Amino acid sequence: MLALNTKKIESCTVLIVDDDNISRTVISTILSDLCRCVTVSNAQDALQYCEQQRPDLMVIDVNMPEMNGLNLCKSIKHNDDLDEIPLIFITGNVSKESQIQCWESGGNDFVSKPVVAQTLIHRVRNHLLSKLRMDALVDLTFHDSLTGLLNRNYLTQEYPKLSRQLMRNQQRLGVVLFDVDNFKQYNDQYGHLAGDQCLQRVAKILNQHARRSRDAMIRFGGEEFLAILPDTDMQSTRSIARTIVSEVYNANIPHNNTEYDRITLSAGAVSTASFNQDDLDEILEVADVNLYEAKMNGKNRVVCS
Ligand SMILES: [Mg+2]
After folding, report:
1. How many angstroms separate the alpha carbon of residue 99 from the centre of ligand 1?
2. Dist. CA 29 → ligand 1 center (Å)
3. Which residues make Cβ contacts (< 8 Å) with residue 240, sequence separation at least 6?
């Protein structure tokens, strides 16, 4: 099997949702050797927990007062941010109808009551292993292997969802396209290994400015980087771009015989409230024009519109 660098099962968090105190204790005791367990007694608390911290898996009692397990499952599966969490039902009713309800609400598996400890452990373990492998594959698919930043696949995949969210919330999108100045000469002068290390250092600086969960720093091309800054107005977009440009300047990576005798960035920045839901091309074109102007105006600077 493909050797993937996955998170350890022991460090996974399983959220147990059950209105019965004894049940919660029994289930968390059974699972406590396998992983970290958090318990809540109702669906509302479960949803609240999921908003703040993402559990790796949930074990849900079907029968609960107010919102039952089936409805909790449906609301998790309808949430774009949570729908990947595997859900295992615990049910006292294993009639055909009840089983069908579990599957139709989006559950990934179920365990009947009274719970057989080994069955619960193996089911949870198997679902966690699959999820961890999937997470690791997604991670590889969406990251650039040299710099560790996100890659263009990520952007293509995430942008439609992001733009829908922003339009719904009437928020602006800040986009900054960065280019390492005179990078071809850098490679020619210092070699490709040094070129790679230079890109890694620049990427590290960029990544420190992905401060909010939806901010994304992307390696866009060879020496081109893209900052995607949701809910960011013109002034803040410009300010983040300028900070990054000056931090790269201050990193003082020597690049002799260039304007500043060091590695610098030029940046084209845009903040917009009107964007195409399906592709980013129009915004990128504007950013690219601004970037070109920054280069023409002497590099090591930001042009914003
Ligand atoms: Mg119950």
Report:
1. 16
2. 17
3. 174, 176, 209, 227, 229, 232
Q: Which residues contact 188 (CB under 8 A, 6 or more apart)?
A: none
CA 10 to ligand 1 center in whole angstroms: 27
The CATH superfamily assigned to 152-304 is Reverse transcriptase/Diguanylate cyclase domain (3.30.70.270)
- For the chain, domain boundaries: 9-142, 152-304
Residues serving a catalytic function are 223
Q: How far apart are CA 210 and CA 70, in angstroms?
A: 37
Task: Give the full edge-to-edge strand order of the sheet including 87-91.
Answer: 36-40, 13-17, 57-61, 87-91, 109-112
Q: Per residue in 183-205, pLDDT tens?
A: 999 999 999 999 999 999 999 99
Cα of 84 vs centre of ligand 1, distance in Å, is: 24
Q: Class of the 9-142 domain?
A: alpha beta
Read off the pLDDT of residues 251-284 as tens digits, 9 standing for 90 and up.
999 999 899 999 999 999 999 988 776 678 889 9
